[in-house]
## 1
Amino acid sequence: MRFISPKTDFAFKRIFGSTDSKDILISFLNALLYAGQSTIQDLDIIDPYSAASITSLKDSYLDVKAQITGDKTVIIEMQVLNVAAFEKRVIYNAAKTYATQLKSGEGYSKLNPVIALTITDFEMFESTEAVISHFVLKEREELFDYPNPEIELVFVELPKFDKELDELTTLTEKWIYFMKNTPNLDAIPNMMETVPEIQKAFRIANQANLSPQELEDLEKREIFMEDQRGAILKGIEEGRQAGIEEGKQEGRQEGIKEGQLTLILRLLERRIGEVTPDVITRIRGLSSQELENLGEAVLGFGNVSDLTAWLQVNAP
């Protein structure tokens, strides 16, 4: 068997966000949010791209969104690249999901809690070796919780997980191992067969179940992600060599943005040919988040008109 990587957005949504994935998602969320306890009994997978009720708000890019037991909303994002201001994006998406629950005229009592679950393929928190970090609002000195924790942030840092197959004992460890190591396996491990939902996830991730077009799209997405990762690293190094003090956050972000820009222009040349200087100038003026959004859209461009239309809508 060959398995697709659940760390790509295509595979993650296919495994956890399809109409047939409710049981998989329940097991996955119970493992990562509630230490394997059967806290979530049922859920509804909802459209993560549904339009906001406030049209001026920035679009959110989530992988899976679900309504779980207790009228809580869970938003899930798998992030492979450590892009600039990512930590701000996590908070923005959680706050936006929380705020846009209300319709005009409804009272604040209608608001339900939101949990933002973020799985990263990079380390976010240098101050801890814990694989899972859970943030809630607390009083600074006495550390008691804010009443009815309305927004929770949960992070799973895959690089910090180093257990081997024969060391896995809990449901949490098995799901994290699945997320990190599936592409490197050639069969479903025997110890995973005791969890029907993980078995089912492996079957969905089996490349044999994908159409030729899906395999081609997946390959393009993986190439794009590796190119972007390389461009970011190159941009960081170029920023350092230009005299930016190593370790400064602003220097790192400048390097990341330059790497994004280099990659975007190269991808655009491959897809639609030469890009005019005035368009390059316009692209240079985009924020890091806008560059990331443009990078995700490039694979769908067929000509210069597609690029121009995208810029008019997303970066007027």
## 2
Amino acid sequence: MRILAVETSCDDSAVALLENSSVIAERIYSQSIHSNHGGVVPELASRQHIETLPGLVREVLSESGIEALREVDVFAATAGPGLVGSLLVGLSWTKAAAFASGKPFLGINHLSAHLHTHYTGSDSVEFPAVALLVSGGHTCIFSMKSWTQAFLLGSTRDDAAGEAFDKTAKLAGLGYPGGEALERAAVDGNPDNVSLPSPLSDPTLPEFSFSGLKTAVRLQWESGADLADLAASFQKVVVNILVSKLLFQAVRSGAVSVLAAGGVTANTLLRTRLREECTKHGISLFLPEKKYTMDNAVMVGRAAFAVLHDDPSSCSSLSCNAFSRWSGSILRALCCT
């Protein structure tokens, strides 16, 4: 089954062609224009998706040896959550391609797609599992009984962890996006030299809050704190909160697997701590390759394959629309029927 997947939920334009869950070809274009503005400008992002997406599709099809869209079996695109203008570009193109080719279209939930980075077949992960989705827009913990049964345990009450990383980096003059730059700065720092609070740090509470931490960082920075020490302290606090809450839920529920996904999972300290804790508790850990921590189309294609593996007749209506927020309690890959 050939699946052409498209992802345009924010500022990355991505296209991938998969044979079932295996990647045949993929392309991703990360927009750099937003670094001049200190954050993603929705209108600029939408316009760049319009300019970039057709070329990425042509490159993917050419590399795959496909001459016409009708040779694709299924089309899938992210429907939300995300920036509505950006989503509409990928969603509209993909629906049109499916309609013109007479092939099925699937509208995919962006959050579920991140978790499906780990999907290579129905037995790719042993359940029950607990999953952490941590990115610039979301910080959530899910209890998973299967690929089709993912229940929200808790999420952030305000800012996502990835946003806190980027805003802290921006404050320190490290640019946007700044998560990677902040991690590099932390390498030479001593986290014990700067005292920062750990908001909602109770591991038994599967919810998060990072807005107060950002304020504390700003106050320390304005008081003359060393950049390396401040970065190290900030990183340590965030990682401790994420790992302690995730592992508490995993141990409490008797999970045999832990899944992690999203842009913040590229952080080396987080990956190291998760490996250490999961090894200590005898739990299998699933971390994405670093290139798949950020938004990409492979995860969308794998989510679509999982949907079709469960029910080959699944498809979305061409009236499927983009949405900015997800507010459910049960996370499903197929968000439009």
## 3
Amino acid sequence: MPDNDQPGPVTGVHHLTVDADSAGQRLDNFLVRELKGVPKTRLYRALRKGEIRVNKGRVKADHRLLAGDLVRIPPLHRPSPTAPAPVPRYWADLLSQRIVYEDDDLLVLNKPAGLAVHGGSGLSFGLIESLRQLRPDDRYLELVHRLDRDTSGLIMIARRPALLRELHRQLREDKIDKRYLALVAGSWPRSLRVVEAPLEKNVLQSGERMVRVSREGKRSVTEFTVVERFSEATLIEAKPVTGRTHQIRVHAKHAGFPLLGDDKYSDDRTAALCSALGLKRLFLHARSLSLSLPGKGSLTLEAGLDPDLENTLNKLRN
């Protein structure tokens, strides 16, 4: 830990000792976490110039740290801290009720729709900022993966750097099974079980992120299974094989069946059905997770649909 957390220029060189929790972490990621407020550009410049050293030697940003390493930190300027926006009581109470699993290394929540996973783009707080305020004794809380703001369901937060690295490895190697429930307009063909279409991210002039199918995009694969049919819609299960932004939503639209409540990738028919059903949010829910925890074996978790989504299905059934 830094031995000077005061704002403004830090006078003199000081050193950080790498603890066991940070062992194996990249040096740049370690610095960003420990030296909050120092611009990343300044950190990388200090690395390039050899101002930051590990065990008295020059190293690159991607150097992996070991427990006990001594990291030399030069005088760096940190802006005066500003008090974070307090989490509204509504979100605080809701999040405390939606913890699905917790141990010393991992926290899993059933994220409510309408809450972004992190602040930014005009948002003063998100899920991760809220958790850090609600759990001040947790020194380390980091998102393992992301969910769209309007998507509800299971999301993992690592409480130890070692577990974050392990779960990222499992995600890269497709060893974590994530399943979503989605409601689409129309009759999804039972034979349509895989959509493979490359996806490309675009940022509009307004700053809004949009994703489209493009030959220049990244490889993207989603598996789909029909769960229940209705006269005007189909409840499907989606398993993203790759993890691209808005992947399920864009692949469903590409197949000709937009998700209900999707104001980014919808069409007039879908919007009319949403209006008739009184659905006022995206019908996409991260229902289940299956993974392996080091030293603890396999873990499978499920989160039921929120009442508003269940009510929509009941209206269709009746």
